Automatic annotation (TrEMBL):
<protein>
    <submittedName>
        <fullName>D-ribose-binding periplasmic protein</fullName>
    </submittedName>
</protein>
<dbReference type="InterPro" id="IPR028082">
    <property type="entry name" value="Peripla_BP_I"/>
</dbReference>
<feature type="domain" description="Periplasmic binding protein">
    <location>
        <begin position="59"/>
        <end position="316"/>
    </location>
</feature>
<feature type="signal peptide">
    <location>
        <begin position="1"/>
        <end position="19"/>
    </location>
</feature>
<dbReference type="InterPro" id="IPR025997">
    <property type="entry name" value="SBP_2_dom"/>
</dbReference>
<dbReference type="GO" id="GO:0030246">
    <property type="term" value="F:carbohydrate binding"/>
</dbReference>
<feature type="region of interest" description="Disordered">
    <location>
        <begin position="25"/>
        <end position="53"/>
    </location>
</feature>
<dbReference type="Pfam" id="PF13407">
    <property type="entry name" value="Peripla_BP_4"/>
</dbReference>
<dbReference type="GO" id="GO:0030313">
    <property type="term" value="C:cell envelope"/>
</dbReference>
<comment type="similarity">
    <text>Belongs to the bacterial solute-binding protein 2 family.</text>
</comment>
<keyword id="KW-0732">Signal</keyword>
């Protein structure tokens, strides 16, 4: 009997020694992975581990073009804020060319930036680059550009609300009846949303008719819209033929203003969207520009840079879309000149 107990004891001791060896081996493997040796990671994705410092972050910035005040302003403000936080901006201007923007973003991805801020770029057209950014685990912040399921964070003015504000102003000023012309653009979400908002408002005002529409040129929108409006005024020469212009953005509206004022047509007013300083100047002089809905450009840039840094360090935003408020500005409440 005692021999059976001795054998059982020896078997138990042997089993315990195997468990101890296995545990030691596991600990050594774990220590190896955390001690500087290369651990297996998914190709193209950064190895998790050491926390990133703001001063070591490279933030890619790409803008659709600098053809108007908003594009230029938010591009430069975004670069300034990245530098202010201690990061390094890798900034590219796509000169109004969608194909170049796609190529520019792929260049940023190849340069292994820690996050990408895309200013006024159509994420649907840019989806091939979006997919490459996802593969390399690079956060993508879309600003004034619209939504795509692959975008990590969209930061925008609410362009539907902006369009509705100026459209409602237009309808009220016309007293619910009149003829208008529209300057529109289909290439990016903000201008599409504003046009949709105009139509939503006008459904309630069936006696307001859009008699002419024009898709603005980019770049070169100012001369393009001025020349188009000159043609429209020749076609509708009498007071009351046209009473208002709805412009997708203030710069295009200013082209119409130049033609209207040169022709002495004080019976026509213009509304737009952006809060362009040129529109403000005209409004202060009680010119043809009557109202705009103004972006909080600095607020949008601040939010984009804040979250680019946070997401580069692994933090996830609480929502995928953040909207920044944009007030209605008229000749009655236009800000004073700086």
């Amino acid at each position: 009997m005692w021999r059976k107990w001795v054998v059982a004891l020896l078997v138990a001791m042997f089993a315990l020694s195997l468990v101890g060896c296995s545990s030691q081996s596991t600990n050594k493997t774990s220590e190896s992975s955390g001690g500087g040796q290369t651990a297996a990671t998914e190709p193209g994705k950064p190895q998790a581990g050491a926390p990133k410092d703001d001063k070591n972050l490279k933030i890619g910035v790409v803008v659709n073009g600098q053809g108007n005040f908003f594009n230029t302003g938010i591009y430069q403000e975004t670069i300034r804020l990245i530098k202010e936080k201690g990061g390094t901006p890798l900034a590219l201007d796509s000169l109004g060319q969608r194909e170049k923007m796609l190529s520019d973003i792929e260049t940023l991805i190849q340069n292994n930036v820690d996050a990408i801020i895309v200013l006024l770029g159509d994420p649907t057209f840019l989806e091939p680059a979006l997919k490459k950014a996802k593969e390399k685990n690079i956060p993508w912040i879309s600003v004034a550009s619209g939504f795509n399921p692959l975008v990590d964070l969209e930061i925008d003015s609410n362009d539907w609300a902006m369009g509705a504000k100026v459209a409602a102003y237009l309808a009220a000023r016309l007293g619910g009846k009149g003829k208008i012309v529209e300057i529109y653009g289909d290439l990016i979400m903000p201008t599409r949303a504003r046009a949709e908002a105009l139509r939503a408002v006008l459904k309630e005002y069936p006696e307001i008719q859009i008699v002419e529409r024009h898709s603005y040129a980019w770049p070169g929108f100012l001369d393009d819209c001025r020349k188009w409006m000159e043609t429209v005024l020749q076609k509708y020469p009498n007071p009351g033929d046209i009473q208002a212009v709805f412009a997708a953005f203030d710069g295009a509206g200013m082209g119409a203003v130049q033609a209207i004022e040169a022709a002495g047509r004080k019976d026509i007013f213009v509304v737009g969207i952006d809060g362009d300083p040129l529109a403000y100047d005209n409004m202060r002089k009680k010119g043809a520009f009557a109202a705009t809905s103004a972006h909080d450009m600095k607020g949008m840039a601040e939010k984009a840079v804040e979250w680019a840094f946070k997401m580069a360090k692994g933090e996830k935003p609480p929502v995928k879309m953040m909207f920044i408020d944009s007030p209605l500005i008229t000749q009655e409440n236009v800000p004073p000149a700086q």
